Each structure stands twice: as structure tokens, then as C-alpha cells.
Amino acid sequence: MAAGAAAFSLREVLDAFRRCVTEQREVLLEPYLSGWRGLIRFLQSLGAVFSFISKDAVAKVALLEGHCSGSQRQQYVSLQSMVRHELAAGRAALRARPDSGCRTVLRLHRALRWLQLFLEGLRSGESRTSVLCTDAYNASLAAHHPWVIRKAATVAFCALPSRDAFLEIMNVGTAEEAVAMLGEAVPYIDDVYGITQELFAEHKLLDLP
Question: Which domains are delineated in the chain?
Fold first, then answer.
């Protein structure tokens, strides 16, 4: 484990994603980004293996934070308000903006699917971590990465620590307590992922360049 692993807390991620979804089923961006900052600490605690994902996530979170604190911040309170605001300029204008909130969230959304699958795999503990991580990656991010990155990722995953080491990184006590909290946290992440997927599919945003 890399130095700084103690900075990660699964409880913080759980609390952030728990706060994400309103009664109206809107996804609030402030807790969404807070949850992502926690997930980035998780990735960074594992060292260079995940740097190709964590560095990209850091850049995307910073970009969204800029939208959320900028002159149009009232339009970036939730995913739904962001989509309405950015689509109002027209689909062509949105596709031409590499820094759009929609494009940025889409990149994070794909990575969230990988983490969602991987964390669920750690909870159930049915395979070695290298297998869990590779399967989760192949079912999510791999389709969006060039062959060189896919190959490097698959090789890197072979060097992952044991499940017990991952559960220790969660910083919530015993392995049993970590598994129990994963059981709490993963459904909240699932919910945020599902709402985002439905929203982006509805507005045909899942293939933004």
C-alpha cells in the first residue's frame, strides 16, 4: 500500500453517495464530487497501478468543480439541471465542447461503473482481486480505452494486493466491518449510476466524443 492510504475512508464515500439522490431522484453534484474525491483517494492509496484512472478522474473532478463554482453555478446544482442547461445551447454546441459538464460526467460515469463492479466483487469475495478488477474493467472502461492502455491495465491488475489488504484500506475496522459497509455503500453508488445512465440515455448523451 502506498503512503497516504489512511487518507481514504469508505464511510466518507458512503455518506457522500447517500446524500447524492434527492426525493425527486435528482443527483446533486456537490455530494457526487465529494464521493468522487473519496474514490480518488482510494485509487491513489493503491499506488501507480491505478494512476491512469485516478489522474484522469482528478482532472475531471476539478473541471466540474469549476462549473459548480463559476458564474453559471446555479445551473450545476444537479446532473439534471446541468443537462437541461447544456442542451439548451443545442446538441451540436454541446458536442463541440470538450470541457462540457455532460462530457466530463460521462467520463466519470464510466469509471464509476468499474468501481461499482469492483467494490461489489470485493464485498462478495468470490475471486482473486486481480480477476475481480480485470472483469470489472472489461465490463466497463475497457471499451473506451485504446488497446495500449487496456493491455497495460490488465498487466498492472495482476500485481494487486490481496482482498484482505483492500479491506484494510477501507479504514472502517475489521474485514467483517469493511464488508458490511461495502454492502451499505455499493447500493447507493448503484443508484447514482443507474439514474445517470437513464438520464444520459434519455437525452442521447452516452456517446459524447
Answer: 10-200 (1.10.3520.10)
